[in-house]
Design brief:
Length: 191
Amino acid sequence: MKNKMRIMSTVMLIMSLSTYAKSQSGIYKSAADFKNDKLTNENVCGNRKTIRLHDFFWSMPTIKVEENGKKFTYRKSELYGYRNCKNEVYRFYKNTEYQIAEAGNIYVYTQQKNITKSKGFIVVNAYYFSASPDGDIIPMTLENLKNAFRKNDKLLAVLEQYFNEENVQEYDQAHKEFKLNYLYSKSINNQ
């Protein structure tokens, strides 16, 4: 019994180390690089932070990236985005980072916002979308979706049938994607 436990714990340790070793951060220079998962300045995640945004008080136009001991500085406006060691992917748009929540037919982004309350503030997710991987990032409202996709009859029908201003940002836990992308994909596949 002890041998089985040792073998199991050794296997678990090896699996976790191999997963850890595969976790990598880096930058995406273009939307095509993002779609092909081609990282530049790729780093195996470890104890050091290899991407520094310098955005604590204000949004800086550059980031610093370290690769194999060498430091590189890039303008955010010249990059698509980056992946951090938590496997979260962010896109740069007008020198601001937006987390890519879903890269479906419609790209969905989130960004944390501080909302002032009477005794401090709370942090909430604000939702955004783009019509393509490198399209403009727009607040995710029903009106904005209808305007952005005004020539897309299938999507407009989905928006009219299933959504209102309160549920347009809803995530479908059963299908593990945003309800908007799920229903839109179904409408495309039922042609």
